[in-house]
Amino acid sequence: MNKLLKLGRGLLIAIGLIAGLALWAMAPWPVLLALAAAMALWMALTRSGQQAASVAGVGISTLRQRLGSSSVVVIGIAGVVAVLVAMLSMAEGYRQTLARTGSDDSVIVLRGASAAEVMSTLDLASINVIEQAPGIARAPDGRPLASPETVVAANLPIKGGAPDQDGSVQLRGVGDRAWLVRPQVKIVQGRKFETGKREVVVGSGAQRQFAGLDVGKQIRLGSEQWTVVGVFKSGDAMDSEVWSDAEMVAATYRRGASRNAVVAKLTSAKQFKPFKAALAGDPRLQVDATTTADYFAKQSETMTTVIRVIGIVVGSIMAIGAVFGALNTMFATVATRAREIATLRAIGFRGLPVVVAVMLETMLLALVGGLIGGLLAWVIFNGYTASTIAGGVGQLTFDFRVTGALLWSGLKWALAIGFVGGLFPALRAATLPVTAALRAL
Amino acid sequence: MKYFHLIWAELMRRKTRTTLTLLSIVAAFLLFGLLDGVRESFDQAGNSANGVKRLQTGSRLSFIQPLPMSLNDRIGQVPGVKQVSYANWFGGAYQDPHNQIFSFAVAPNYLDLYPEISVDPAQRKAFAATRTGVLVGAQLMQRFGWKVGQKLPLQSTIFPNSDGTKNWSFDIVGVLSAADKKTGGWYDQMILMHWKYFDDSNPYNRGQVGWYVTEVSDVNQADRVAKAIDAISANSDHESKTQTEAASAANWMKQMADIGLIVGSIMGAVFFTLVLLTGNTMAQAVRERTSELAVLKTIGFPDRSVLMLVLAESVLLLLIGGVVGVALAGVLGPIVSAGSRGAINVPPIGASSWLLALGLMVAIGLVVGALPAIRAMRLNIVDALSGR
Questions:
Q1: Most buried pick, A107, A297, B120, B192, via CB within 10 A?
Q2: Rounded to an integer, what distance in angstroms lies between the CA atom of residue B54 and that of residue B39?
Q3: Among A325, A367, A374, residue whose Cα is nearest residue A88
Q4: Mind listing the pLDDT tens digit for each residue in B260-306?
């Protein structure tokens, strides 16, 4: 009977714990702040709260004597948080780079059912029709702000790779209006390419990824030699590209007058629906229009999910490992302090203050661990540059982003681990019969 | 081995602690099992014996640029070439253009070059006889619940059909599966169709192929053959680039991201944490047993035996936890793969992963056991017994 009771209680605690953790994971920061405030008030104002505070004070002041075993909790949790934050910051950086690339008031028009720019082709007649569609903003000279562009996956030698090792870069052939459609693209070194010459400007990300992309150098694209005349920066996915004159790219890659896509600026985001409807209703066209924001969000969707899922699976398994480590350490702590705790209870301290005190101690260790882990991830990974194949064709360079939100969720994980790791030892400390504990070694 | 019961008794001295330590070791090796499979599948990409024998010839301009069909016969005549085949991207997608599926249009002899893809002989015959037939990877069949014999509507994100739309219809005639599950996860995810049907039905392709696959009769001649193939189209408007399949796969993987580095650093963090946790537990366990160890020494156990006892205990602890963890990874891997509906593919754990894992268990066991064991060995009996 006794055993059954014990089992029931354990089960109840476990269920409560899982529910609590789920709520914890979802709670926004004001809720947590309120929780902390309520805790502080309780400790300051009620009798058992004051007791808890003093017991916790003793525990924390003697932490230094248990430095070795306490640091296990701290380092274990720091490891979990560092790995988790690093993985999530990779997904976040990737997503942000692509999200920044698009906007709601610019559109990309592709041939129907094409998943990416390289897979699409638009002939000259279609391009002319698209450019005249309603809703497109006009340049000061009265021409529509629409840029027909050729996109090819070109091979270039990778920096630091074997002599014959090529990577794939997105080469974009553009006209003069491309610069107006994408005002964020700025030349930071050298100059723009001249029309009708085999000259390229390279994105700063592409420059970092591929060999020989320095101003004044010659590179081989297609079967021709090209001169690098400038470097541009845009702070988004364009940074991974190489730009050149559309006519020259089309000639080299034998595209004739066709282009891959038309990118256009609308007068406002509201114009998108009529613009799309006008293109869909035109019998001469078979195209899909998407806002660039949607287009790039779709491009990044799968990859971001995959990285995030991996991050959370890895983080969870590590967190479970760390919970056991914390449990172990705290059980040992409670065991070594069994006499002390029993004495406290013998002179009239109730169970609750003891539980709270042990919990506070663990949570404090967890907090320190979480902070160290977050700091580590931030120092090592914030701004760390990685690259991957994106959109099926070219290298996309992106930076890891350790954002405040990620650090905050890392801290939440740390506290949750600390909570679970401290709860059971605390309960044990509070429920062990006083006489048995006093006799303990 | 005759002291096994002693070691066991030591482990069972504090069941809670041993269990908790075991569980954190299990968690660490579970992670190891899952990640090492991924790392290895990246390392092993195209690295099979067959992958070395195969050359891939693509356009030097860009991997999406096609090559003329006329190269087929000329490559076939290069000395040292056993057989040559070709394929095209199809750019297939199911239901939504973003739901992309690896799909290629291939020459009739394509499967001859890939003995690691297994297809039921009857189904292969059916494929050869059906113009609109496709062979579908086993995992894809499962993921979308397709059956052999049904019609398969696919969109192409690149090529229009003869009627101008991008909707294609195929007949599923058979299932592809990888003969070797370890390196072949890729084959279970793809669709093969007839190049002839593809070429006839789409007005854009006009007899061009995406890339050639060549099998060389002698691996040592692969470099020479590759150069000879590229020489055919040197200085033409369709220059080609030929490399072994292994090299091109490795090249491709390198571009995906520095997966190896990321996986490696995760494992590093995990093991650092693990070593610390276990080391701490071992130290605690030995400290607690000081007087017992002293008794052992008093009744005549030599110092070396005491050292070995403590070391054996920690190695045993890691072995138990580690084996359970890696085995668990073997069970959980397929569940993760299935749960992500093919988005993440966790390969099964091979012999080399197991060996590496076992090596790590023993090594970590020795490292974390070393300090407590030396401490136990140096124990002064008189001091220990008097509790000093």
A1: A107
A2: 23
A3: A374
A4: 677 777 788 878 877 887 888 788 788 778 888 888 888 888 888 88
- Strands A218-221 and A224-233, by their bridges, are antiparallel
Spatial distance between the Cα atoms of A309 and A307, rounded to a whole number of angstroms: 6
How far away is chain B from the Cα of A402, in angstroms, using its nearest Cα?
A: 16
pLDDT by residue (tens digit) across A34-71? 888 898 888 888 888 888 888 888 888 888 887 777 88
Q: Is A74 helix (H, G, I), strand (E, B) or coil?
A: helix
The amino acid at residue A112 is G
A50 in Cβ contact with A43 (< 8 Å): yes
Q: For B137-157, write each residue's pLDDT tens digit.
A: 888 888 888 989 899 998 887
Chain A residue whose CA is closest to B26: A321
B250 near B45, Cβ under 8 Å?
A: yes
Q: What is the dihedral of CA A283, A284, A287, A291, to 10 degrees?
A: -80
Query: For an interface test with A, which of B26, B34, B98, B280 has the most A Cβ atoms less than 10 Å from its Cβ?
Result: B280
Q: Are A133 and A278 in contact (CB under 8 A)?
A: yes
Contact B353, B40 (CB under 8 A): yes
B65–A253 C-beta distance less than 8 A: yes
User: Can you tell me the distance from the alpha carbon of A341 to that of B19, in angstroms, rounded to the nearest whole number?
Assistant: 25
Contact criterion met (CB < 8 Å) for B257 and A386: yes
What does the block give as tokens for B337? 């793969």
Q: How far apart are CA B249 and CA B44, in angstroms?
A: 9
Residue A208 CA: distances (Å) to CA of A78, B66, B258 = 32, 29, 15
Mutation test of the interface with chain B: which of A69, A317, A399, choosing the one with the most B Cβ atoms within 10 A?
A: A317
CA distance A341 to chain B (A): 20
Is the distance from CB of B175 to CB of B135 less than 8 angstroms? yes
Residue of B nearest to A81 (CA): B269
- What kind and span of H or E run contains A261? strand A261-265
